[in-house]
Amino acid sequence: MKKQYRLRIFDFLNCLSDILDWISPVLNDHHKQVALMAMRLAEALELPVLEQNEIVCAGILHDIGAISLAERMETMRFENTTGQSHAELGYYLINIFEPMKKAADMIRFHHVPWESGKGRFYKGWQVPLGSRILFLADHIALLIKKNREILGQIEDIKARIIHESDVLFEPALVDAFLNLADREYFWLDLVSPLIGKQLEQSVKLEAIFLNNQDLLAFSSLIRRMIDFRSPFTATHSSGVSATAQYLGKLAGLNESECFELKVAGYLHDLGKLAIPTEILEKPDKLTNEEFNLMRAHTFYTYRVLQPIEDLAQINMYGSYHHERLDGTGYPFRLSRKDLPLGSRLLAVADVFTALTEDRPYRKGMSNEQTILILDKMGENNKLDPEIVNLIKIDHDSINQARIEAQNSSRDEYRKFLAEIG
Hints:
Largest sheet: 2 strands, antiparallel
Helix content: 55-70%
Structural class: mainly alpha
Number of strands: 4
CATH architecture of the largest domain: Orthogonal Bundle
Mean pLDDT: 89
Radius of gyration: 23 Å
CATH superfamily of the largest domain: Hypothetical protein af1432
Shape: elongated
Low-confidence stretches: none
Order of helices and strands: EHHHHHHEEHHHHHEHHHHHHHHHHH
Distance between the termini: 41 Å
Strand order of the largest sheet: 1-4
Number of domains: 2
CATH topology of the largest domain: Hypothetical protein af1432
Strand content: under 5%
């Protein structure tokens, strides 16, 4: 069984920031701008490289807790006064993954104003310097007007930041910004279409190696990001994961392949981070435009995981879960010969879980209803009929595994809600 997976944190975070910003063109490159600006400020302050890296990670994910389109739009207002809510949510989403704990702390307090030094603490907690840097970088980014060339905006932006020195922003950080602000490259990098490349070249994030336990923690972090955005989806990925893993065992996959199916179940809906919750939670039929947006989520999953070579198999398992044997699925229109067994297993697991779990607008379907639909999809060459037969042979045990996994995830979600108040 494979023991280690190589993960370049930057590759993943860079792609994840794209997904977060794809919700709306208004958000284009916002996370990267904040991360690059925060890194420049950290360099100017001569902070240790390790701390600079943590600030970059926090910058790329700083608005991960803003889960609806309306909330994301609110974060783009300079005078936003509701930021602490999504900052707290962001902290609880990512603090379970050990390599991201310092970044989580910075995200938690990145909306605390300075207020003549009162902002060193928030409700008894010490606010990290990285949080104060992110707070300044975030607000500078919000002042950049995308429809105007950047160099002509510098003086207006400087004036606004100076006006808020010692009120919103720590004066020492404002001074560091003003020293950088007279250098054209500082601004041109922020609006360059190559900002991702520039960030990659500047940051000093080393690859990390994850054993199976680490990879599960990492994938669980992503699962929480995906599912905990809404009570409607809070347990879906855990149900798919448990079902896929159980089916893998029945299909004769080895221990390593079953483990990767479990991880793929956690990650399969990663691309839904680019879909507004207003669409994910819509109880009525989606419009054609909304459905097209929804269909793109598997493509986004594939592209985000693609740079991580050691997760290539897991990526195929998860990203192909809406492909169909007859080639009518999406987004790649693959047919049976192109789909590995793990992908076919996860496709059945996804449909099975969607049919049997409770939804806000209906109760989970019965055994008979579920088998009827799966059988029809198998007969029509949509799903693999041999895998559907595995469901029919051992339906009760498979469903029990799904229920137990989703109950556990539901308990985790309730605890999560209690923690964030």
